[in-house]
Amino acid sequence: MKPQIEVVVGDITTQHVDVIVNAANPSLMGGGGVDGAIHRAAGPQLLEACKVVRQQQGECPPGHAVITLAGDLPAKAVIHTVGPVWHGGEQNEARILEDAYRNCLNLAAANNYCTIAFPAIATGVYGFPRAAAAEIAVNTVSDYLTRRRLPERVYFVCYDEENAQLYKRLLTQRGQDSDA
Ligand code: AR6
Fold first, then answer.
1. Average pLDDT, consecutive stretches of 10 residues, N- to C-terminus, the chain (180 residues)
2. CA distance 28 to 106
3. Distance, CA 38 to ligand 1 centroid (Å)?
4. pTM for this entry
5. Alpha-carbon gap, residue 105 to 100, rounded angstroms
6. Residue of 35, 72, 99, 160 marked active site
7. Which atom of ligand 1 is nearest to the CA of 38?
8. Is 35 labeled as catalytic in the residue annotation?
9. Closest ligand 1 atom, residue 32 Cα
10. Ligand 1 mutation pick, 14, 121, 125, 162, max ligand atoms within 8 A of CB
11. Distance CA 14, CA 132 (A)
12. Which single residue of 5, 103, 108, 154 could bond 65 by disulfide (Cβ 3.0 to 4.6 Å)?
């Protein structure tokens, strides 16, 4: 049987999954890092879709998530979430990051999506320490999958091999096969 969680090294914009997650900012108007890469690959339709969400719901607070179409991406949809800006760990950063992962999974399930790909939310510009962020990602996703039918499969898409090793080690510790 294919493992439920897989670690992939690469670019999230090329993933052939139902939904990819964007590490956005509250404005939802694009930015650098993975956000910039996703908007570039998806084309102008994505920004237009984000503008509609902004008009309807306002900004997306840290820990929350919204869903849009995926424009030119191979995925069917994009879930935009906002991670916490790291301020040293005393400002609820871990809890907000956990909420971000859980709200993305909830949105994927609510839309009947089976496969979802996550980047390492908040570990770039937002400065969340990578090892601690990987632990939150793995624990939140693993616990969710044991309790829920959807999504069926989760991909952690790491931009570099070093980050992928962090995820693989954590998954091995939890007794979950992680090879893509
Ligand atoms: N595919 C997969 N992972 C990527 C890609 C990619 N194409 N590009 C970067 N990463 P960041 P954040 C990794 O900074 O920390 C934006 O400006 C990267 O190596 O993209 O949540 C937003 O608009 C890192 O491990 O997101 C916000 O203002 C991870 O993605 C702010 O940055 C997340 O890094 C959000 O910051």
1. 89 98 98 98 98 98 98 98 98 98 98 98 98 98 97 98 98 76
2. 19
3. 10
4. 0.97
5. 9
6. 35
7. 7
8. yes
9. 17
10. 125
11. 26
12. 103
